Fold each of these.
Amino acid sequence: MNEKIKVVKNFIMRRYFSVFRSREKLERFQEKNILAQLKYIKAHSEYFRDIKADSADDLKALPYMDKHVMMENFNRLNCVGIDRDKALEIAINGEKTRDFDEKLDGISVGLSSGTSGARGLFIISDDERAMWAGGVLARFLPKGNIFGHKIAFFLRADNNLYETIDSKAIQFRYFDILKSMDGNLKELNEYQPSILVAPPSVLLLIASAMEKGEINVRPVKIVSVAEVLTENDEKYFKRIFGLDIIHQAYQCTEGFLGYVCECGRFHLSEDVIYVEREYIDDERFVPIITDFTRKSQPIIRYRLNDILVADKEKCPCGSACAVIKKIEGREDDIFIFDGPDGKDVTVFPDFISRCIIYAEGVRNYKVVQEDRKNITVYLDVTGDEIRNRITEEFRTLSGRMGFEMPEIRFEDYTYDPARKMKRVERKVR
Ligand SMILES: [Zn+2]
C-alpha cells in the first residue's frame, strides 16, 4: 500500500474511530492490545523470547527497561535484525550531513536529542511511520477544516519522519534549528504557516522577532514539542500570537505519549500506550510506558525520566484518556540539597523555576545546580535589583523546605540551538 494512503487511513482511524469516551472501553482496548503485543514480541524479539504471553497481566511480570537497557540489548531487543552500531553510524552521519534520508534495510534510524550523556537510538519502519504520521495529524489538524494547511516544523534533526505528511492537501516544511535562525525566520515569514510546530526555545525566538516587528506570522495553531513548556513561556506565546491555547506534543524517542486537546488540557495517548505510574509524591509520578503499536523496536515497561503531575479532574472534551496537569521536567533535574540533620532535601524543578518567575522581569533563564552548595543562575537581564530578588526567593524556599542555602552565582544567558533547552538542570550526579 502506498505510504500516503496508509497515513490517511490511520488518520481517519485515529481521528474518527478509535476515540474513547468510556474508560472501561479504553481499558478493554488496552488489554487486548497489550496481549497482542506480548505475543508479537515473544515471537519476534530474541530478548523477549521466553516471556509468558497468555494474558495482558503477564506484562506485570516483565522487568522495567530504560535507555540504558535499550542500548545494551539493542540487537536482541529489536524485531527487525538491526545492528546497533550500524544504525548509530547512519544516524550520526545523518546529523552531521543534515541529510536524513538514508535507511537501513528499509528502516529509518534516528537519535534522541539527549539532554544528558547517553543518546537513545530509535528505529521505525515505513508502516510505523505512516501510523505515526496519521496519528499526529489526527491530533493536530484543527477541527473542521483539515485541508489546505501549511505546517512548519522546527526540529534539530529531521529523521525523515515528518516528510511523510507532505502532500497537495497538506503542505509541510522542515526548518533545521541548527541552520541560521535569521534565514529560518525570513523563510518562515514567506511561508506563512497555518500550523507552527517547534520547541519552546525556538518559539521564544520567533515570538521575540514578532514583538520587534521583524516578522509577522499568524498560525491558527502552535504545537510546542521536544522541551518542557513552562507556564510563563506559554502565557507569553498566547499573548504574542493571539491564541487561547498553546498545544503540546509529548513526543520522544519512545513514542507519541501525549497531546493537548481542544480544551487545552494535556492527555496521555492511552490509545497507543499503556501507562503505569510510579508516584514520587502525592501528585507527581514517573511514567512507565508500554507502546502497543511499536513493532520494530519494542517499548515495553519503559521507565521514562520525566516527572508528570497528575490531574484528577476529567476533561470536558470527553476523551477517556487520562489528563495530566503538566510535564514538570526530568527526574535527573530534581535538585538535592543538604538538610539540617544530614538528610537529603529534594526540590522539584517547578519550585526552582518559581524562584525566578516570582522575581518577575526575566524572560530567559536557566538554573544549574553545580553541587550541593552552589547554583548558577543564567539570566537575560542584569542588575543587582533582580539578582537580590531572586536570592531572596531562594532564601525563602530554603527556609520553607529546610535546606542549607546555597551560594548563588549569576551569569548571562545565551541560547544554544544545538542543545535542548532546559530551565532547570542538575549537574551533580
Ligand atoms: Zn481533553
Amino acid sequence: MKRMVLGLLAIQLAACSDPVPESAIDEHIAEPANEPVEARLPIVRPATPEADLLRVEWMRIEHAGWETLAQQVEQPLQSVPVAGRERPGEMPALGIIIDDLGHNYSRGRRVIDLPAPVTLAILPHTAIAARLAKEASAAGRTVILHLPMQNGANLSPGPGALFADMNRETFTATLQGNLDDFGPLSGVNNHMGSLLTTLRPQMDWLMDELRERDLFFVDSRTSAQTQAAFAAQEHGVPHLPRDVFLDNELTPGALQNAFDRALAEARKNGVAVLIGHPHEQTLAFLEQVLPGLEQREGVRVVAMEELVGRNRR
Ligand SMILES: [Zn+2]
C-alpha cells in the first residue's frame, strides 16, 4: 500500500508542469511502451502550489535520513575526500544548483535568468531538456546532467535511471544514453540515489565514464553512506559534495535559514554547495536574495565548474 501511494506521488509529480508550446516538446516525449508509466504521462499541466508541496513530500520520503545527515554535514566527515576547499585570501564562494529541471520551460527559464551564475541540473529524457540546455549554455550558464539513480524508498527515479541490479554493460549503456541526451554538459549530480550511491562498484563504473568525458561530479549526498567521493577521488574526477539543501521546507523563514547556513559554510570552508528545486517559493526567494549578495554578505556566487577548479569543455 505504501508503495502504491509513493508510486502515485511520483506519477503526479512527474506530470507537474506548466503549459509549453508544442514546438518545445521534442522527440524525447515519444517514449517506448516499456518505459515507466510516468515517462509517458502528459507534461502539459499547470504548475500549482499543490504540485510544489507534493514534490516537497516526495523529497522528504526519498531523503528520510536528512536530519541525521544535516548534523554530520555541519562537521564534514574527515574521511571523505573533498576537493576545492580552503582558498585563503579569496572571497568565499557559493555554488548554487537547481535540480529536477527539464519538465517545465518557464521555471527553467527563470533559473537561467537569475542574476547570478546558478547551475541547471537537468533530468535526461525530459520534454524540455535539450531546449533548456541550449538556452542556458547560450546565456553562459553551467549545465549538468541530473542523473537518476535508485533510491532506498522504492520511488521511481524516472527515465534513464541506474539500478543496483544492472550489469556493467547495461549500466554504462544507460549512463551513456543519458550523457548523450542533451548538451553541452560540464558535469553530473545525482537525482535520488540514496541506495545506488552507497555501492562502490557502481560508483566506480560511473566515475570511469565521467573521467573519460572530462566531467565533474557533485554528490547530492542523499545517503550518509555515499561512496561517490571515494570513487571520484580514485578515478581523478573533480568533485564536491552538497553542503545544504535550500528548500526542504518552503516557508520564507526556512528558506532564509538554509541560505544562511550555506553562507556560513562558505565563510568557514572557502566554498559551499547549495542545492534547491524549481519550486515557485524557491525561485522567488532566489530572485529576491541574489541581487547585491556579494556586497551585502561578502560571498560570491560562482559557476560550479569554477568551484571545482575546472573550465567548461
Ligand atoms: Zn532530483
